[in-house]
Amino acid sequence: MAPTFSDLIEQTRLAARSVVEYGEGLLNPTVRLGITGLSRAGKTVFITALVHGLVRNGRFPVFEALAEERVVRARLSPQPDDAVPRFDYENHVRALVTDRVWPESTRQISELRLVIEYQSRSGAMRELTIDVVDYPGEWLLDLPLLDKSFEAWSAETLELSDERPRAPLAASWRAHLATLNANAPADESVAIASARLFTEYLQACRNERYAMSLLPPGRFLMPGDLAGSPALTFAPLDVPVGVEAPDGSLWAMMRRRFEAYKDVAVRPFFRDHFARLDRQIVLIDALAAFNAGPEAVRDLESAFRSLLDCFEVGRRTFLSALLRPRADRILFAATKADHLHHASHDRLEAILRRMVDRAITRAGVAGAQVDVVALAAVRATREAEVRRNGETLHCILGVPAPGEHTGSFEKIFDGKTEVAVFPGELPDNPDDLFVRGAAPFRGLTAVDAEETDFRFVRFRPPPFETAGDGAPALPHIRLDRALQFLIGDRLT
Ligand SMILES: Nc1nc2c(ncn2[C@@H]2O[C@H](COP(=O)(O)OP(=O)(O)OP(=O)(O)O)[C@@H](O)[C@H]2O)c(=O)[nH]1
Ligand SMILES: [Mg+2]
Fold first, then answer.
1. pLDDT (tens digit, 9 = 90+) per residue, 296-349?
2. Mutate which of 35, 38, 44 to test ligand 1's pocket (most atoms within 8 Å of Cβ)?
3. Among the listed residues 235, 236, 255, the one whose alpha carbon sits nearest the alpha carbon of residue 244
4. Rounded CA separation 417/423 (Å)
5. Going by CA atoms, what residue is nearest to atom 14 of ligand 1?
6. 337 contacts 375 by C-beta, under 8 angstroms
7. Which of 122, 213, 438, 468 has the largest count of CB atoms under 10 Å?
8. DSSP state of 105
C-alpha cells in the first residue's frame, strides 16, 4: 500500500528524532530494549526479574559480564520521558518476593531506566544505560490495524467470527449487526450498543477455555485513558471494501471513529515505543494456547504472523538510523517454561521456532541476529520423576495458587500445599500441533478439564533460593541466556 501523507510526516518525524538519539547514543551508550508480548505473556514479570537480578547480582552464570565479575553495580536511574509513568518496580518486587503473588495485569504504559556500571574487557570503566517500557499486551495487536481500512478490518473481523470456536461467542453481536443498515443516518445509541456487544464478544474469546489471541482493537479490552471516548465507540459493519460511505451514515461515522482510533491510540504508541527499539525480546505464552486446544494454537500463530510483519529489523548503521531505527537483535522466547519438565524444553523451542519461522527468515535476511529460547523469568517449580503403572512420568512440583483446582474440581488448592503435576508431554514433531486435520490434541475448548492432553496449573511465585555464598536470589530458567543475547555484546 502506498504511504499516506500522515505516514510520511510520521516517518520524517521519526528520522529527525533518531538523528538526535544516534548522537546521544555515542556520548552515553543506551540500549532501548523492547519487551514485546500479548496480554499475560509475562512482560511485567520478565522486566521485574531481569532488573531484580541485575541490581542484586542474581545468579546469571551465562551472562558473561556478571560471570567475569566485571559488573561493578547496576542501579535504577531517572527515566528519560517526564510524561510517562515510571514502571512500579518496587511494588512488583514486593508482590513477587514478599507476598509471593504475581503482579496484576498492566493497564498503562510505563518506563524504567537502568544503568550498568561495568569494566570493559580492556579494563576501562564504562556505563551502559538500558531503557525498558512495559505496556498492556492487548495494545500490541493494534499495530497491524495501521495499514487497514475500516472496510477491510470489518470484513476480516466478520470472517474470523464465523470460525470455530468464535461463532457461538459472537452470536449476540452478530444478531445485532444483522439488524443494522450501514447506509442509515448515524445514530450514537446504535454505535454504543454495537461497541458494547462487540467488546463482550472479544472478552468471551479471551476466556482461558478458548484463549484466542487475535482480538483487536486492543483498547476495547484494555482502554487505558480512552475509556468511553468516541474513538472507542465503533464496531465492524457488513460493508463492501473499496466503496465510499454515504455522508452522514452510520457507516461514515464508524469509519471516522476507526481512523480516529488509529490516530489517537495506535500511532502515538507505535511512534513513541515500537519504532525506536535497538533490541527486542518477543515473549510468547504458548502454554495457555496448548491448554485451550488446536484452535487457540492456530490463533496465536496468526496473531504473531500479522504482528511480526509490522516489525522493522536490521543492522543499526548511521544510514538506517537516519532512515528508520531498527532492532538488530531479536530473541523469541517461550515464557513460563517452568510449567514443563526440562525434557520438554527443546520441544517447546522447536514449536516456537515453527510458529515464528517467517519472521525469523525475514529478520535474518535483513541482517538482524535472531534466536529462540524457552525460559522462565521466575521459576516457580522444581522437577520430579513419578512412577505410575511401571511408567516414569516427568512431573513438576510447585505450590498451586489459591483457587486453582484439579481437572475434575475434586480438589481446590489452598495456596500452601505443594503438589506434583504431570503437565503432559509436548510432541517430538511440532507439526503435530499445527497441521489442520492432523490428529488434534484435546484442550479445554473441546473437552472437560480432566480429559485434556495438557494441563498447566498456575503456581505461586517461589521463595528465594539461597546460593552457596548465602546471597538470596529468585530462581529462573535461562533468563541469563536471554540477557547475554540481548545486551552481552554491549558490555565487552
Ligand atoms: N510460573 C511462571 N509463571 C509466570 C512467569 N511469568 C509470568 N507468569 C504467569 O503469567 C502471568 C502473566 O504475567 P505478566 O508478567 O503479568 O504478563 P504481562 O505480559 O505483563 O501481561 P499484561 O500486563 O496483561 O500485558 C502471571 O500472573 C503469572 O501467573 C514465569 O516465569 N513463571
Ligand atoms: Mg504486564
1. 999 999 998 888 777 666 555 444 444 444 678 989 999 999 999 999 999 999
2. 44
3. 255
4. 18
5. 42
6. yes
7. 213
8. P
